[in-house]
Amino acid sequence: MNLPEPKRLQETPNESPNERLKALGITLPSAPPPIANFVTHVQEGKLLYLSGQGPTEPGGRQHTGKVGAGVSIEQAYADARLTGINLIAVMQSALGDLSRVRRVIKLFGMVNAAPDFGDHPAVINGCSDLMVEVFGLSGVHARSAVGHGSLPGQITVEIEAIVAID
């Protein structure tokens, strides 16, 4: 396996999330639209709940397949990172300014996994690492990473988030 080291507790207090995205070479896409009867986010007080996002490219192509049976951990890690970019795009759309993110509280990561696959955390690290890279200490979060027999459209990963905002 050739996965990057997890990003931990890196703080650059003078950089905004948008400056960090730029330094990482990431341009946010438009927030992907919902695929069924729900909205991409709901704000309740100082919490922003983000509906599950998947690994959707800006042109609409989705990454599909079973992790551990045709999809490598490295590819699924990249898919989780792409999913994180889509979550951040929803945050941007909802808030207008990523500097309003006070804390990424929780991620719930789902992996479309073969029955004998067991390295779900390594896959969802793709999103977790991105949150720390973009939001610094405010991106360190609680998390669940679980396997599923299938996900909508057979996407490789789906991740939802809860975010505290100012």
Explain what you see:
With 166 residues, the protein is an alpha/beta fold. It has one domain: 60s Ribosomal Protein L30, Chain: A, CATH 3.30.1330. It has three helices and seven strands, in the order H-E-E-E-E-H-E-H-E-E. The protein has helices at 17-23, 73-95, 120-135, and strands at 41-44, 47-53, 66-67, 70-71, 101-112, 142-148, 157-165. The strands form two sheets. It has a five-stranded mixed β-sheet with strand order 1-2-7-5-6, covered by helices on one side. Helix 3 links the parallel strand 5 and strand 6. Helix 2 packs parallel to helix 3 (120-135). The longest helix has 23 residues, at 73-95. The relative contact order is 0.26. The mean pLDDT is 93.
Based on CA atoms alone, the radius of gyration comes out at: 15 Å
Tally of DSSP helical segments: 3
The CA-CA distance between the termini, in Å, is: 39 Å
Instruction: Label the overall shape.
Output: globular
* Strand/helix succession: HEEEEHEHEE
What's the main sheet like? Answer: 5 strands, mixed
Count the domains: 1
Which bin fits the share of residues in helices?
25-40%
How many β strands by DSSP? 7
Strand order of the biggest β-sheet: 1-2-7-5-6
- The CATH superfamily is known as RutC-like
Return the CATH class.
Alpha Beta
Break the fold down into its secondary structure elements and pairings:
Blueprint: H1 17-23, E1 41-44, E2 47-53, E3 66-67, E4 70-71, H2 73-95, E5 101-112, H3 120-135, E6 142-148, E7 157-165
Parallel strand pairs: 3-4, 5-6
Antiparallel strand pairs: 1-2, 2-7, 5-7
Helix pairs in contact: 2-3
